[in-house]
Amino acid sequence: MLDQPNGSGQLVWPTDDFTRTPYEVYASDRIFAREQEKIFNGPTWVILGIECEVAEPGSFSCSCVGTTPVVLSRGEDGELFAFVNKCAHRGARVVRELRGRSMTHTCLYHGWVYGTNGDLKAAPLSNGLMGQGGYPEGFRTEDHCLQKLQVDTHAGIVFGSLHPSPPSLHDYLGDAVRDRLSTICHSPLKVWGYQRQTMACNWKLFMENTRDMYHAPMLHAFATKYGLVNPTKQQHALRFENDGAHQVYSTIEMDRDADGKAASGGALESPLKLEDPRVAEGVGELPDGLYVNIISIFPATLFTVAANTLSFRQVRPISPGKCETVYTWFQYEDDDEEMHERRVMQSNLFGPGGYVAMEDAEVMESTQKSIARGYEAGSTFVEMGGGSIAEENHPVTEASVRSFWKNYCKYMDIPTPSAQAAE
Amino acid sequence: MTDMETEFRITRLNNAYVQCIDEDRLEEWPGFFLEDGKYVIFPRENYDAGLEGYWMYCANGAMMRDRVKALRGVNVYNIHYDRHLLSNVVVQGEEDGVFDVRSNYAIVQTDVEGRCHMFSTGQYRDKVVEENGGYKFKEKIVIVDSFNIDRPLAIPF
Ligand SMILES: [Fe+2]
Question: Chain A residues with CB inside 8 Å of B152's CB?
C-alpha cells in the first residue's frame, strides 16, 4: 500500500529503484483523481492528431486528454487551436461529432455559439426578452470562452496540454523522440483508418505494456512461430528521453540495401508458414535499418511503426479499471497502390485482432481482474535486467517499465522511501 | 426480383455460416467462400468516412485458412462462446449471377465465468454466387456499427 505506516495518509512509493509497483495504483479512485490533476492537467503533452486530419479552416477532430474531452480545430486563418469540449455556460458537450468541418460550434442546450478558436461569439437572450431577464450588466462574451489548451506541433504531429504553462513541446519530447518522429514523418501524411478499443484495465497497464519488450516472444508466439523476425540479423536499441519519461525502442535489421533500408523483414525458416505470406512481407522504409519503432511518450501517446504499418495511439483513462485507445493508421500521401496494399495486408498484424497484438488486451484485462478488485495489497516484481534504469541493446529488461514509474512518481509527487526519509 | 427458392437457399447459406462459427467449426469457415473470395471486418467509423482501416482483411481463401491456423495454434485470446443472432436476410438484387445480399447480425459473447454481454452488432453485405450447385460468398463485408470494440477480436464475425 502507498500510505505511510503512521497513518498520515501521505503517499510513499515502496522502493527506491522502482522494482515494485503497488497494485493499488491500478485500482484506487483517489490515485485516479490525482493522476487527472497532476499528470493530465499537469505539465505534460498528449497527442491530438496529425495536421492533415484538420487540413481545412473549420476542420475539427474530437479526442481526450485524460478524462477531459477536447477538440482540435483549424482556425479561420489556418492556425491550430484546441479547447475543452464543455460549454462555458452549464457544461454541455458543444461538439458532438467525432470529426467534421464547421466555422462555428453551437451548444445544443442554450445556443451559445463559439468560433473555431473556442471564443464565445454570442449567447442568446443576453439582453433579456422584452425588457425582462438577461445577463447582469458587465456580462462580456470574452469572459466565457471554452477552456483553451496549449497547442504545438512537431513534424506535422499535433500535441496539446491542459496545463497553462507546460515546458515547450520541443524540450518535453527531447532530441531522441523529435528526431525519430521527424525520420518517420519525412513527407506529407495521410490517414487511412481508425480503430477504437476499450479495455477493462487501468491505462497504466497499457502504457507499461508499450515499454515491455520482455513479454513479446512468450505472449505473441505468432512472430516467432511464423519466423517474422530473425534474431541473428537484428539488433535492439532501447533509448530514453526527457529523464526517461519517454521510450524510443527500435529493432535494426543488419541486412540493408544501398540506401541503408532493411533489405528484408529478416524472415527466418520457421515451424509454421503462411499460405499467403503478404501479411508478413515488410520492406524497409526507414534509414539505418530501422524496422520496428515503439515510441512511448509519457503519459499517454504511442507511435508504433513496424515494417510498413504506421500508427499512433491516444490512450484515454476512463476509470481506474477502464481505458480506451484510439488507433490512427497513417501513410504517406505519395504512396503508390502497391505500398498502400502492403500496409493494408500488414495491418492484420496489429489492432484488436492483430496476429501479434490481440493477446495484449487479454493479458491486461485478466491482470486487472486479478490485481485490482480494490482490496488486494501487494505489488508487482519488476527486476528483469536488475534494478537499473539504463539504456540497453537487448530486449530482456524491464528498465523502461521502471523508468515509467520513476517519472510517474515525479509527476504524481509520490516520494521514494529514501527521499521521504531525507525530508 | 429473385425467386423464393433462391432467396431461401441464400438465407440458408447465411444461417449455416453463423452456425459454423458458433459451433467452433472454424476449419469449415473458409469453405463458405470462393477460393478468391474476400472477407473483411470493417468498422463503421471508417466505412462512413470513406477510409479503409479494417479489423481483419482476408483477400482470399489462403488468408482465411491462415487466420484459422494461427487461432488454433499460436494466438491467445479471451476464453468465450459466441452466439450470432442473424436476422433480416434480404436479397437486394442480382447482376450477372452475383446476388447482392444484406443481413443484420449481433454477437452475444459469454465469458469463461458464464457472463454474457453484447459484443458486436452490424450488417453483413454479401456478394453471393452459385458454384457447383451450391451458393458461396464471393465477398462478405462485415460493417460493424459498434466500432469501439471491447474484447479481443479473434474469431471471425
Ligand atoms: Fe504485446
Answer: 352-353, 358-359, 361-362
Q: What CA–CA distance (Å, rounded) separates A8 from A254?
A: 56
CA A392 – CA A240 distance, rounded (Å)? 10
B41 near A CB under 8 A: yes
Number of domains in chain B: 1
Q: Which residues of B touch A348 (CB under 8 A)?
A: 56-57, 63
Q: Cβ–Cβ of B53/A193 closer than 8 Å? A: yes
Task: Identify whether residues A180 and A235 lie together within a single domain.
Answer: no
d(CA A36, CA A28): 13
Taking contacts as CB-CB distances below 8 angstroms, the residues of chain A near B70 are 222, 226, 272, 355
Q: Distance, CA A171 to ligand 1 centroid (Å)?
A: 29
Show the domain range for B102: 3-144
Domain assignment present for residue B96? The answer is yes
User: Does residue A265 have a pLDDT over 60?
Assistant: no
Q: Tens digit of pLDDT for each residue in B135-145? A: 999 999 999 99
CATH of the domain at B68: 3.10.450.50
Rounded CA-CA distance A170/A193 in Å is: 28
Please say if the pLDDT value at position A376 is more than 80: no
A404: its cell numbers: 515509467
Question: Distance between alpha carbon B34 and the CA centroid of its chain, in Å?
Answer: 14
* Residue B154 included in any domain: no
- List the single residue in A225, A275, A365 with the smallest CB-CB distance to B65: A275
| A287 and A392 share one domain | yes
Which of chain A's residues have a Cβ under 8 Å away from the Cβ of B66? 274-276, 279
Q: Which residues contact A418 (CB under 8 A, 6 or more apart)?
A: A16
pLDDT digit string (tens) for A129-163? Answer: 999 999 999 999 999 999 999 999 999 999 999 99
Residue A239 scores a pLDDT above 70: yes
- Is residue B75 within 8 angstroms of chain A, CB to CB? yes
Looking at the fold, whether A178 and A200 belong to one and the same domain comes out as no
Q: Please give the Cα distance from A32 to A26 (Å, whole number).
A: 8
Is A135 exposed, middle or buried, given 0-12, 13-18 or 19+ CB atoms closer than 10 A?
middle
Mutate to test the interface with B, among A362, A363, A369, A373 (most CBs of B within 10 A): A362
Residue A407 in 3-state DSSP?
helix
Three cell numbers at B29?
469457415
Q: Does A279 reach chain B within 8 Å, measured CB to CB?
A: yes
How many structural domains are present in chain A? 2
Q: Rounded CA gap, A17 and A25, in Å?
A: 17
Residue B150: count other Cβ atoms within 10 Å of its Cβ.
Answer: 20
Cross-chain residue pair A276–B66, CB shorter than 8 Å: yes
Q: How far is the CA of A16 from the centre of ligand 1 (A)?
A: 27
Q: Which of A99, A279, A347 is the closest to B54 by Cβ? A: A347
Which of A50, A192, A348, A367 is the best mutation test for B, with the most CBs of B within 10 A? A348
Residue numbers of the domain that contains A371 = 187-412
**Angstrom distances, CA of residue A79 to CA of A50, A71, B3, B4:** 14, 14, 59, 60
d(CA A255, CA A262): 6
Residue B136: enclosing H or E segment and its boundaries? Answer: strand B134-144
